[in-house]
Amino acid sequence: MAERLNLLWLQSGGCGGCSMSLLNAEGPDLYAALDLAGIDLLWHPSLSQSSGDEFLDLLRAIVRGEQRLDILCLEGSVVHGPDGSGRFHMLAGSGRPMRDWLADLAARARYVVAVGSCAAFGGITAAGANEAEASGLQYRGAVPGALVPADWASNGGLPVVNVAGCPVHPGWVTEALAQLAQGELGRDALDELARPRSYTDHLVHHGCPRNEYYEFKASAEKPSDQGCMMEHMGCLGTQARADCNVRPWNGGGSCLKGGHACINCTAPGFEEPGRPFTETRKIGGIPVGLPSDMPKAWFVALASLSKAATPERLRRNAVSDHIQVRPSIKRSK
């Protein structure tokens, strides 16, 4: 029988939203998913009863090598401020910055997993002036080298596994943990930013409920409209790497299905788009955020043809909050 793995989950500079999302795991639920993967939860701030000295004793035992740690998960960014001291986030009762505990624990762990874009790249916590001096575990934005160096690898031979998202999809987390437990998450299963390819080999555009409008460039003009949100409403679904519309939240939801444009929250720097999230940046009337793997000239040419061929049904429905014109039935002669 395979050895069960021990998982420790810590939180730092963040909102706790990734844990809230994780608790909505289904098919199977979180506890069943961990058990089926052969993973035992040593501690989680929202799910474990132990606290205070009991919790600190656990951390000390791991650092001393008395308690095996197979998977270290961090939710939230690493806080280095002020002035590189880490004292903006002291681990209660320990007299040490959380940053220092994380460095010691990462050195002991077989694998290290950054859960959410804050832990992966800095995320929302690093936005603006970043007075907290927040970073991800191995990345500062898109630049490698943060709490651990750019070339760092865990005892299991992997860089920090960046399960990015804001919040992260529960299925992305449970799937990555199961892959680690089964020895199936090697370097070739990670993309250029060390994110699991099981979800980043997709684009958010895949499975988008507005794809018919996109094909004919029938665009929404205000938040309640049904049309494609790429041209005017800031949607980055044709560039964002994730399977949100293929594997929706809670069996049926996604940002786009809820009527909001994709903001590319799995990518470093998404929190600082340089414009409102619901506005498309344009140069000469052409969206800057074109599909990631399509030449601009081709897109402009195809878009012009598509607009010229837009059916009246889509043209009218795109700028309405409900179906104005239903599909017609083509009758044979």
State the helical fraction.
10-25%
β content, as a range?
Answer: 5-15%
Mean pLDDT: 93
The count of β-strands is: 13
* Individual helix count: 10
CATH class of the largest domain: Alpha Beta
Q: Radius of gyration in whole Å, from Cα?
A: 22 Å
CATH topology of the largest domain: Rossmann fold
Broad shape = elongated
Low-confidence runs: none
Number of domains: 2
Please summarize the sheet with the most strands. Answer: 5 strands, parallel
Distance between the termini: 68 Å
Name the CATH homologous superfamily of the largest domain. NADH:ubiquinone oxidoreductase-like, 20kDa subunit
Placed side by side, the strands forming the largest sheet appear as 2-1-3-7-11
Element string (H = helix, E = strand) = EHHEHEEEEHEHEEEEHHHEEHH
What structural class is derived from the secondary structure elements? alpha/beta
- For this structure, the quaternary state is single chain
CATH architecture heading of the largest domain: 3-Layer(aba) Sandwich
